[in-house]
Amino acid sequence: MTSRLSPLATPAFRYFFIGQVVNRVGSSMAGVALAFAVLDIEDSASALGWVVAASSVPTVVFMLLGGAIADRLPRAVVLRGCNLVQGVAQAATAGLVISGYAEIWHLVVLQAVAGTVFAVSYPAFLGMVPILLPVEERQPAFLLIGQATSAVGILGPAVSGLLVATAGPGLALAVDAATYLVAAALLVLVRLPPGDRSKAKPSVIGDFVAGWAFARELGWVIPAASAALVFNALVSGAIDVLGPVIADDTIGSEGWGLARSAQAVGVFVAAFFLAKVTVTAPMKTIMVAFVVWCVPMLVLGTRVEVWLLAASFVVAGAALSLLDLSWNLLVQEKVPEAMLSRIMAIDGFFSFVAMPIGQVAVGPLALAFGTGSVELGCFALAVLVAAVALTRRTITEVRLTGAPPPQLGG
Fold first, then answer.
1. Average pLDDT over residues 29-39
2. Domains of the chain: residue spans and CATH
3. Burial class (CB in 10 A: 0-12, 13-18, 19+), 180
């Protein structure tokens, strides 16, 4: 009988899961540490922007090709190599910062390397669970990963802030580097038979083209990714950028931090209930969950109080957990194993490219119409996009049946 922790009984998944949790601990600390490392070198928002962009831009540019690479090679080997490269890059960053020799261009180059590697590791990671576990174990596995990520998201930044304040950002970056190397070592223990790659094209570009063609053939991938682009743009702009601005004038940074942490709590708690939920109409579920994810915009646009905003983020976190579960279950049932990372990369590309769009657009809109009006307008747009998506038969007719994934045709 499948239980919430039963996926951990499978050794390959257990090593993979522990490695990813260790990795996420370091990554959750790295953002805070890197920001303060940059500001110690040059107290400039522009310098920080260059370093952050150096990672995010190659991630977007290479994501689709990264999915093709992750499908072409054994995913555990891909992840192991990516962790090694990212660990070395972060160790170099930590060494430069600790020694006092770090310059902004050093950090830009090293973050560009990390962002490029992430474009490959992200789709490889998302394609691992279906090859590690049988169908009946995958739902609790996805929920376990979500719970671990949310728990780390609560604790990691706080621990990083303490390390930065007491020992400096270099030590926190060194810890992050070590977690990559530990994750790579654990992935050595993940033994898997090679997947069927008999239909692989002669080149990575050929594999990418085949993946895009297969996504179009499925029918629901591109519409879902397009909707995700809009929702991610709305959230990154209205909540991630405009939210702190509104909080600064109302509940302050402490209130905002408390409210935001509530989203991770929502993800964590929801997993206990979702383990018993059967999703049959995944695309309908995803579109409704997208709208619920945007509920904090209603609070930010009307009555901003800490308890009310925190409650809205708990609800948003629960919706995000349901959204991720539905998408993962859908892809693992409808997509052949050899195509998994390419389909996940298409979704990732649309999601990542949306973030700077929302972040850039929201400022001028707030100046023109006011912050409250923009928040409410963004929520209304989210409802409209979901409503339009739910009129598409390619969305509404998708069902989960429990059938095994289809075989890849010639």
1. 80
2. 1-187 (1.20.1250.20), 199-402 (1.20.1250.20)
3. buried
